[in-house]
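CO-FOLDING WORKSHEET

Operator: S.A.
Ligand of interest: zinc ion
Run index: 311
Mode: holo prediction, single chain
Checklist:
[x] sequence pasted
[x] SMILES validated
[ ] output reviewed
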Amino acid sequence: MSDMVTLTLHVPSLQELAGVLLKGLKKTFTDVMVSVVECPDLTEKPFTFPVKGICGSPRIADVGGDRNMIPIVRKDKVFDINTVAKQIKLPGAYMLGAGAVSYQTLGLTAELTHSVKAETEHEPAINESYLARVNPSDGTYVLEKYSEKYSDCNFGLMAHLYASEGKTGKVIEVKANTRTGEDNFVSCMRKALAEQYGDKIVGIGGTFVIQQGKANVHVMPPEFPPCPFESQEDITRWLKFYEMTAPLICQSVFVSHDPGHDLRMEHTHCFSHHGDGGHYHYDTTPETVRYLGYFHPAELLFRIDGPEPFH
Ligand SMILES: [Zn+2]
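OUTPUT RECEIVED:
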């Protein structure tokens, strides 16, 4: 197993964070409300999580990354949510986030939208994750509940995960409607944190619903190209982009600053109950879009399968 780096994150109060996010979102959305609330019951629709909330020992796992696709696609890089939960010292954690499926499990690659409660000594894992893949025959996309075909909790290449005990508790509720700026919903919040906190690292995870409108979403084709990727641009050219329709439930992890561990600054994948899902880029309906999100800051960030730590 490769080295793991543990970073202690800066954790402002929820009230303070709410103020920072409000200020940032107001630059891009005309109608914004940010408040500290009791987490709604996330077992209910549209979330359908296997746990009620996203509170308790909040932490982020940044596993692998584009480094596992450029220049060589590392199909052999397979990770297990249950193992990650133990590595971050939170066995049985509920994890949400964005990653890729294990090529070894599926025999193809696809987007993975994580919503999974890791196993404990006494209980098996509950995997409510979704995978989005491209249908090679006609280029359309397909969204599938992972556990309907596969019984493991594996993923490949990378995942950006927010982990918690899955408890209820206080969270930051964000409502943002009508976009007038260029940044997407997540970038707005991430940039606001970076501006406020500089080289202190603030890491946030949570879930948001695009309640109204449409979004630009990509899905990885099932096969990697024969020539190696040389750049992020090569990967972008290979991806398939679609316009998908609300309501989309988005699992998001973002950090304000990377002190040199090849951290992913933001990563958001979505699923739905009508067959849409994949990697969220931005909404395509700025005038009518409505976002509703629930977020919590993490206390620790675990960099797993990252670059060799410098000594
Ligand atoms: Zn992605």
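REVIEW:
Residues 69 and 229 are 7 Å apart (CA to CA).
The radius of gyration is 18 Å.
[x] output reviewed
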